[in-house]
């Protein structure tokens, strides 16, 4: 297989570990701290997780560790969307496992959680792993979105692990996957199966974070990749001065990616879904705001600009949120009938007849292509797949219509030529930045240390991330500490709370303070490509979001 020079160079990169892990693994011992409890719903969660609730936070210190060299078989699963650094979590886990005992074995379940259910695994050896070190992607074993959530599935997991003599599982995933991992851990404990479960926080969306998890891995590389592309487009826009670029950015719900990219590139407009929801801004008002900026820049002779649109926006606009919820329910409750409607015309006729009056009005007022996209297949959670809704095109069309109205009454005489982009998949498998390469390797190494500490239902936590790696802190947090109860499909379910953009947080405040200037004055900044080799201030910087959040502490 032909490999690129960078890929070859990255094989030799030695990820940086926190200082505590830079010594013989047999000289590190766990320290158990305070009992960790969630902020709310304590009693309910205690009842739901009688075996894994209220456990202490774990850290590490120096000391002779007698039991770490026990021979173990460990299983690992990649769950959900790709995020740069996944391979390094596996590499860190593998290296720690083998450092502790060279006879221990790591099994990678192929294709995500379904690999565990189908007992489809490969033994990860050095030879197998080495070509994946410090590279992007999840192709080492593949990923999937199958949910592990039923007792039947859990029983299969016990069988598969028992057959392979696996005593610990590491689940690398987002909030849902880590929630399910905690439920699995509770099941394993209740059944006295002797199998433990440790999670690792993954998602480019950056919405799995809290007091203990400063950021999920992948966010750093993905945002830097998108910011590079946005900066390039900004420079093109400022050179040619002829297009407004509408750029949709991934992030299923939260707008962390759009906010970080805005901080890195200073576009004319960046929509933040959380603010739109809080202010209950309607679609018409959003369009009006964009139109005003376009018209004002045009009066100044600037018929070009940049608009960042978060992928999840559509679900935060009040009237769209209601419409989507009604559509999800209708399609879930009448699946059998809905699939018999095989033309868009019959589907939309049936939908319109069954929606509330308000939602039917909103649905009918949308362009045809957006209506079609709203009726496409749901994801495994029954949600509309926002990455497939072309919000950027919807906004372009609506702003264009509004400008034509203004033109007709003599209030706009500029040009509005547009380009649209969607950046998401471009960043999910990029070569991990040094930050993500180091962070992920540390998360994996730490996951093994938690396994060796004989605990279960914990998530691997590496903190103090805006400092150099030697100052990072390693430890474990019981997943139940991050949970609360939320209404899902008609009943209250324990879930890890999704972290949305905080409007009171430093990153948003920094953006809100500057955006008026960015709107009218062309203030673009050009982050350039991720650098892997060179001075630390160019190569090892965390995201602006993380740095600003750490300042709050
Ligand atoms: P995870 O939450 O699983 O990390 O995935 C996030 C994400 O990349 C979102 O940003 C995006 O909406 C979604 O996955 C796209 O999913 P798919 O890969 O199935 O198209």
Q: What is the tally of beta strands?
A: 15
CATH 2nd-level architecture of the largest domain:
3-Layer(aba) Sandwich
CATH C-level of the largest domain: Alpha Beta
Predict the CATH topology of the largest domain. Rossmann fold
Instruction: Please state the overall shape, judged from the principal axes of the Cα atoms.
Output: globular
Task: Give the count of helical stretches.
Answer: 22
| Major sheet characteristics | 7 strands, mixed
Oligomer: single chain
- Any low-confidence stretches, pLDDT <50, length ≥5? none
Q: How many domains is the backbone divided into?
A: 2
Head-to-tail CA distance between termini: 48 Å
Q: How much of the sequence is in beta strands?
A: 15-25%
Side by side, the strands of the main sheet go 5-4-3-6-7-12-13
Give average pLDDT, whole number: 95
Computed structural class: alpha/beta
| C-alpha Rg (nearest Å) | 25 Å
Bound molecule types: 1,6-di-O-phosphono-beta-D-fructofuranose
Indicate the percent of residues in helices. Answer: 40-55%
Topology:
Layout: H1 5-11, E1 28-35, H2 42-48, E2 56-62, E3 73-78, H3 86-100, E4 105-109, H4 113-117, E5 121-124, H5 126-129, H6 151-163, E6 168-173, H7 175-190, E7 196-201, H8 219-240, E8 244-249, H9 256-265, E9 269-270, H10 273-278, H11 283-299, E10 305-310, H12 318-333, H13 335-338, H14 344-354, H15 357-365, H16 368-374, H17 391-408, E11 418-423, H18 425-428, H19 434-452, E12 458-463, E13 473-478, E14 483-488, E15 491-496, H20 506-520, H21 536-539, H22 544-551
Parallel strand pairs: 3-4, 3-6, 6-7, 7-12, 8-10, 8-11, 9-10
Antiparallel strand pairs: 1-2, 4-5, 12-13, 14-15
